[in-house]
Amino acid sequence: MTETHATTTPGAPLFPPGRYGRRREPGRRRPWLTALLLAVVLAVLTVAAYRLYQRYGDPTYDAQVITYTDVTDTGILVDFQVTVPPGGSAVCVVRARSADGAEVAREEVPVSARPDERAVRVQHRLTTSARPFIGEVVRCRPPS
């Protein structure tokens, strides 16, 4: 004969008392804790993105290659434009690569703007160690 209790629901398992330890109450959900953790993670990511942008993402110094011409076995003429703060200056890294992608020349080129200018157009001749395929401006930064 089986023992039935009035407080047990049919289909619920019946465990002998003391045999399996204390049964846990169903856990309470804490949506405020999840929201708080999400807010903290978003704040940390925002601060990290802002600091990285301050350090590496300076849109004040922007360079665009207009053309590269006069390609010979020993050099290339790179024509580029640099945007700097009004009357400011910059140092741009200009390089040439061969057809297989190897770097065949690299130079730092100082660029200065007149007091009323923001865009400076520069032509610079790179002397290369092999025949170049392309001339490019890697980056521009404020002078040290």
Short description:
This protein has one helix at 31-56, and strands at residues 62-69, 75-83, 89-97, 103-112, 119-127, 134-141. It is of the alpha+beta class.
Write a structural description.
The protein has 144 residues and is α+β, with helices and mostly antiparallel strands. It folds into 2 domains: 29-58; 62-141, Sandwich (Immunoglobulin-like), CATH 2.60.40. Helices cover 18% and strands 37% of the residues. It contains 1 helix and 6 strands; from the N terminus they run αββββββ. It has one helix at residues 31-56, and strands at 62-69, 75-83, 89-97, 103-112, 119-127, 134-141. A 3-stranded antiparallel β-sheet has the order 1-2-5, with no helix packed on it. A hairpin with a 5-residue loop joins strand 3 and strand 4 (103-112). The termini are far apart. The relative contact order is 0.18. The model has no long low-confidence stretch (mean pLDDT 85). Keywords: Membrane, Transmembrane, Transmembrane helix. The chain crosses the membrane at residues 32-53. InterPro entries: DUF4307. Residues 1-23 are annotated as: Disordered. This is DUF4307 domain-containing protein.
Q: What would the keywords be for this entry?
A:
single chain; 144 residues; alpha+beta; Immunoglobulin-like; 2 domains; 3-stranded antiparallel sheet; 6 strands; 18% helix; elongated; transmembrane helix; DUF4307 domain-containing protein; transmembrane; membrane
